[in-house]
Specification:
Main location (chain A): membrane
Number of domains of chain A: 1
Oligomer: heterodimer
Shape of chain A: elongated
Helix content of chain B: over 70%
CATH class of the domain at 95-277 in chain B: Mainly Alpha
Largest interface: A-B, 52 and 57 residues
Largest sheet of chain B: none
Number of strands of chain B: 0
Number of strands of chain A: 0
Subcellular location (chain A): Cell membrane
Strand content of chain A: under 5%
Low-confidence stretches of chain A: 1-12
GO cellular component, one term (chain A): plasma membrane
Helix content of chain A: 55-70%
CATH class of chain A: Mainly Alpha
Mean pLDDT of chain A: 82
Strand content of chain B: under 5%
Shape of chain B: globular
CATH topology of the domain at 95-277 in chain B: MetI-like fold
Radius of gyration of chain A: 22 Å
CATH architecture of the domain at 95-277 in chain B: Orthogonal Bundle
CATH superfamily of the domain at 95-277 in chain B: MetI-like
Order of helices and strands of chain A: HHHHHHHHHHHHH
Pfam families (chain A): BPD_transp_1, OppC_N
Structural class of chain B: mainly alpha
Radius of gyration of chain B: 24 Å
Largest sheet of chain A: none
Domain ABC transmembrane type-1 (chain A): 94-283
């Protein structure tokens, strides 16, 4: 998680806007990114519609059918320790995990962009204090920070979303701060200020749109990060609580059944890996598409 | 050079102060607080709890508690564990070896494989190998570490019965061979993400280097390609990796916590999780501070080593 956030490439120097034409075409040339986008589309649709098409609900307990292996009977992907249908649970869990991923990303982007734009634009004492706070937060390894906070709050879907958001906005703040600081000395920003535009107008209407490319890439990678983070804390027992299924907490008890029912561990893990890989591919493709000078590095 | 080191150390100390405030605030402002563990047992009446709070100094204003904790910590007294009354530093110390052993071996493994994959990928850019390595690294970065741990246990412990499924050694057999046998699984799991990170950065660094003028000069002098790659390119491409290794430390620590949990490895990460479960605040706070110090020292050392290793930057970094 931790993992994916650490490989965000150093932010490219800001570029003026007005060269978006062709970005979509460059994205489409990036086969893995298109593949990733397709997978995410498919997963989202499956999780949204799938549960209505299945003969079982994710909470229906059929104790006589427990530990049915995949592809063996009525249950396509088998059943879990309580005889609940694995496919139905995977799809419902996917709703939660994707919801957590997107919502946590949205909140962390709002925090990160706000902190970054304020400290980049005003600089001075305020900027220094904010950025040192970012540095200090980044001194904690992410899982340690997540666990320290998560053990102390009541775990619900919304509190987990906020928890992940407040521990994953720092990289975005750094990226935005660097961009804004570089952009605000440029002619167009100086001109806007000279024309008497308000601070807020300069920040959000002039500077931010020009820094959008690295922000979009960071947002995509943040979804991947949030899905992973949810799975980690749920696996460690502090995330989404049963009976609400998430891909992470489906794995929580899977370790005990590794010998007798390995599919309990393999299926949710494969779902997480598929979703996170797809978001990382999309992020990679967006980076190439929005910043052609990177040249595939 | 020394003035630079001193400035960095002072900056680091300031940052640590901020880190300690954040950590302290997180643990003490949360509902429940350190007393919740004692309250949950049910053995104590409200009167007892009040007395415990008094004795542990938990009824004082938070800033006072913080300053008291800070003052003691600076003198080397990190408090005692709520669980077994052991000094926090010795509790951390007794778990540190296992974590460092795991982190060090997996870093070496990741460097060896990652550097090789990255170099080869850069030399044969856009080849089949490069493509597969890119996709492989992306997937490796996306696999939840604990799940990869479960897969390794399933394949190598349950299926093939080659590796033990946990612990640092078999009880009663602390021989080196037995320890190494137990280390293979967790080392492999922890190295996965680091290997991917190394291969990506190594490839990128190598690509930067092999387009430099001095490589072209070396070629035009007729030096054999192999010698150019090893003596001129790889040596220079490895330099930025010092920084990467330092920056990667927080991720590595997070990975270690998860790996230790899956493999019941008696390290600092597992200790942290256990302490969280027990609401053992002094130990939780101690480990948070300890990891922050490690992370800061890691980045400082990486910067210094980088300057020492690369004479082009001069001996006096600013």
């Amino acid at each position: 998680m931790s993992a994916s956030s650490s490989v965000v490439a150093p932010a490219a120097p800001p570029q003026p806007a007005r060269r978006r034409g062709g970005a979509l075409r460059r994205f489409a040339r990036h086969k893995l990114a298109v593949f990733g986008a397709g997978i995410i589309l498919f997963l989202t649709l499956a999780c949204a519609i799938g549960p209505y098409l299945l003969p079982f609900t994710d909470t229906y307990i059929d104790i006589m059918q427990r530990f049915a292996p995949p592809f063996s009977g009525a249950h396509v992907l088998g059943t879990d320790a309580l005889g609940r249908d694995m496919l139905a649970r995977l799809l419902m869990a996917g709703r939660i995990s994707l919801l957590v991923g997107f919502s946590a990303m949205a909140i962390s982007m709002v925090i990160g962009i706000t902190v970054g734009i304020v400290s980049g634009y005003y600089g001075g004492v305020l900027g220094t204090v904010l950025m040192r706070f970012v540095d200090a937060m980044l001194c904690f390894p992410s899982i340690f920070l997540l666990l320290a906070i998560s053990a102390l709050i009541n775990a619900s879907v919304s509190s987990i979303i906020i928890l992940i958001a407040v521990t994953s906005w720092m990289e975005v703040a750094r990226i935005v701060e660097a961009q804004i600081r570089a952009l605000r000395a440029r002619d167009f920003a100086v001109a806007a200020e000279a024309l008497g535009a308000s601070d807020r107008r300069v920040m959000f209407r002039e500077l931010l749109p020009n820094a959008i490319a690295p922000i979009v890439v960071a947002a995509t990678l943040n979804v991947a990060h949030a899905i992973l983070a949810e799975s980690y804390i749920s696996f460690l027992g502090y995330g989404i609580q049963p009976p609400t299924p998430s891909w992470g907490n489906m794995l929580d008890s899977a370790q005990s059944y590794l010998t007798s029912a390995p599919w309990l561990a393999i299926l949710p893990g494969a779902a997480i890996t598929l979703a996170v890989t797809s978001f990382n591919f999309i992020g990679d493709g967006l980076r190439d598409a929005l910043d052609p000078r990177m040249d595939g590095r | 050079m020394s003035s630079y080191v001193i400035r960095r150390l002072l900056q680091g100390a300031g940052l640590l102060l901020l880190v300690s405030m954040i950590g302290f605030a997180i643990l003490h402002l949360a509902p429940g607080g350190p007393l919740s563990q004692f309250a949950a047992g049910g053995d104590m009446t409200q009167e007892d709890l009040d007395r415990v709070a008094e004795q542990l100094g938990l009824n004082r204003p938070l800033p006072i508690q913080y300053l008291d904790w800070l003052w003691r910590m600076l003198q080397g007294d990190w408090g005692v564990s709520y669980r077994d009354q052991q000094p926090v530093l010795s509790v951390i110390g007794s778990h540190l070896g296992a974590t460092l052993e795991l982190m060090l071996t997996s870093t070496l493994l990741a460097m060896a494989i990652g550097a090789w994959v990255g170099i080869l990928g850069a030399i044969r850019r856009y080849s089949l190998f490069d493509g597969l390595a890119t996709i492989g690294a992306m997937i490796a970065l996306s696999i939840p570490t604990f799940w990869f741990g479960l897969v390794v246990i399933y394949v190598f412990s349950v299926g093939l019965e080659w590796l033990p499924s946990g612990n640092r050694y078999t009880i009663g057999d602390e021989s080196l061979a037995n320890r190494i046998h137990h280390l293979i699984g967790p080392c492999m799991v922890l190295a996965l993400v680091s290997t991917a990170v190394w291969s990506r950065y190594m490839r990128s660094s190598m690509l930067d280097v092999i387009h430099q003028d001095y490589i072209r000069t070396a070629r035009s002098k007729g030096i054999p390609e192999r010698r150019i790659l090893i003596h001129h390119a790889v040596r220079n491409a490895l330099l930025p990796m010092i920084t990467i290794t330092g920056l990667h430390l927080p991720t590595l620590l997070s990975g270690a916590l998860v790996t230790e949990t899956v493999f019941t490895w008696p390290g600092m990460g597992r200790l942290f999780l256990d302490s969280i479960n027990y609401r053992d605040y002094p130990v939780v706070m101690g480990i948070l501070m300890f990891t922050a110090v490690l992370v800061l020292l890691g980045s400082l050392l990486a910067d210094l080593l980088y300057h020492v290793a690369d004479p082009r930057l001069g001996a006096n970094p600013t």
